[in-house]
Amino acid sequence: MSIISVVFDFDSTLATTYVGGEMLRGHTGGMYEDETAEVHQRFRSGITTLLEYQEEGFNVIDESISEMSQRAADYAVIRPLAREVCEQIWNSGGTVAVASAGLDIYIRPPLDKAGLDKIEIHAGMVTADPTGLPPFRYDYPSSFKDTCQSGGAFCKCGVINSVRRENGGADAEVIFVGDGTVDQCAATNAADTVFATRKLFDYCNYNGIPATEFDEDFEPLLSYVLSKISENGDR
Fold first, then answer.
1. Which residues contact 216 (CB under 8 A, 6 or more apart)?
2. How high is the mean pLDDT of the chain?
3. Which domain range does residue 87 map to?
């Protein structure tokens, strides 16, 4: 019997919107909203990485960690049927994880609020006094991998491969669920099964990578998980 696990991207995937962007909007002295600002130009031209671009924004934010975390909990909406998917995976012995190029300070609070505190989080970690203002210290769970082309803070492929090893190695199935450019490497090189939306789904279609599309909710993912668990039970 193969154990099924799921690794989710967070922004615009497990959460219905880009929560990281909402943290910056209206709280960076207009820098985030000004598309002509130097910080945007450097990122678009490839001078700065996604990681550097993100840190520049959060280092000028006008809120403490605790204030941002509360705002994230109030703002973020977890995609419908996420809880049902997670419960099926956990009940069958699998792992549910988030692999995100974002930051734990806005990822953990919405998950806790939704009762999904058992989800493992692999993301950038902000180390600072919860009541203090930036600049912050940023720690990342693993370094960049030369072979990974995700452009994120760390290698999402590494998270998928780690989850697979923890759940039986080659006999385990790891589903990856994502939406964007930084998810392409994981979908191409690591996932056993891919569920995608937006840019990631277009990328998979263009490159011949099998992927199932999801939209407003995780009904396609839940149906797949239920069918696989049923198959395993019949063996």
1. 79, 80
2. 92
3. 4-16+77-234
